[in-house]
Amino acid sequence: MSTDLTQALEKHFGFSSFRDGQRRVIESILSDRPTLAVFPTGGGKSLCYQLPAVLLEGLTVVVSPLIALMKDQVDALVSHGVAAARLDSSLSLEQVQTVQADMLNGRLKLLYVAPERLANENFRNHLERVDISLLAVDEAHCISEWGHNFRPDYLKLSHFARELKVSRILALTATATPPVAEDIRKNFGIAEQDHVQLSFHRPNLELHVTPCLEEEKRPILLERLRTDLEAPTIIYVTRQETAEGLAAYLKRKGLSARPYHAGLRDETRSACQEAFMSGDAPIITATIAFGMGIDKADIRRIIHYNLPKSLENYTQETGRAGRDGQPACCELLACRDDLLVLENFIYGDTPSPEAVSRVLEQILMRGANFDLSRYDLAVSNDIRPLVINTLLTYLELEGYIIASSPFYSSYRIRLLRDMAQINLGLEPSQREFFTRILSTGKQGRTWITIEPAVAAEQMQCDRDQIVHELSSLETHGDISLKPTGIRHSYRRLKSPEKMQDLTSRVQQLFLKREEQDLHRLEQVLSYAEEGRCLNQHLLNHFGEDQPDPCGHCGACLGSSGGKVPGATSPEITLEHAEIIQGLLDERHGPLRTARQLARFLCGLNSPATSRTWVVLPTTGRRSRLTTHDAFALLQDHPFNNVLAYCTSLIIP
To answer: Would you say 515 and 349 are in contact if contact means Cβ atoms under 8 Å apart?
Structure first.
């Protein structure tokens, strides 16, 4: 098999030899054994399922949360003559139908899907008709309750694998601590001997920690950057406004820096990334939105301006430096004040028992078959969409509901030709049908908005007929179609015996996650205050034993470690109290409860506050509630202190 695998590798992918660990993983998969591959960033995980995919009969399904990564890999595979495709939210209905037809007809070898796609009952029904040779789960740490990048739909993957009777499973991740790896193995039935883990040690990376106060950060950063103004550098920050402010500061000091974060327009982010990749903008000040899919080998510096939210995140982010094997520097500017923002995010995500109870009732009291908008549910209860998705996933795992096909509640239609031209290409029955569809809609200046469910009821036909007709017209270039308002369908399988008991169980799950996230921050602080070898500390965190100090990190060289300083927590002043009371007197709906008010004062966006428009008393203009002077008024205060204060103001 050894020679055959090498020949297959060269034939299909043009490589003459395997990297460390790849052959062992591939041999395990081809021997029909579920396998876990824990490889550091850039370690060649993808080949571990791509080569088996072309050698095995049937379809390899790859679960990945990253659309950009899916697209890049599919493009690369197709260029090598491998039949690969992806199903994601960026595809049109026609494209989805083409991919599904190729899947059912056996024309595909690899199909990339997001984890949410497997939650679609209709898609699972399609998969049951297909010979699945391998299920590859990328970013597999997301499945673990101990994982640092939790995604609710990952929790269901092991159930789906059993339902579809898939025996070959490959779980892949770049960051798995021993508890996470154990969780993954348990979920997928992976034997310990089929857990293949490479070392996380990167001898070319110099790790440094510089304890400092907030006001010392900018001068230190400037000093570091001026040692080499052209060295490709990523500066990681927590907040979007920090990315913007820091880039502006560096520009004023004569350095070529650009900000990057999720709040920028797509074209701005793309231009920023391209400028960094080409070398036109050597310095990027970025949130963690920057990095996934960045394949730049010569990054010389990674500087964490703020504390990362976990050591797993830190390892992923520093792992983007020095992929060319040349020396690179990774420095953490450690200030205890950064913990405040990270802790506030964690506390702010935890819903109150009242909110959990309300959402459970709204879900489980809808009848045997129902649909809902997760977004609307999040806004009406002022709970982040991720929390809503998590709650729905827990209900599925406990057997209360099962998801079926999602659909769009409305479509915006724009005619690309006049009706006379469109009608020329239609049969008489089609003309009449399309005219009736349009008559059910609401006419705007450019677009006509229709709701297929409402139109179907008026026209006494099936909703799918309407959607199919519109998609056909779009394919032929007659209309432009914009679907909006995605809704998710469910079937209720059972009702809880006691709603109060279910509410309590679900609330405990959220509190457990809160506790785990806070523990991760403690681990970051422990690393920042480490007086001994930083590499040993990180490797021990991932279950590796390195008996000897690395000799080249800041701690080994005597320049890192020590107590991380921070400012004393400020008091809530009389001026604060007056502003807060004025805010309460304005009686804004999204600030009714103590937790909602505390989130708002700590500068934490929520679905309801982000969507609410009000007339601000200071300007008399209509604006979003989050532009109010009181928003983020107490962002420098611990969330629990603010919550206690708000609780004293708001009597239930």
So the answer is: no
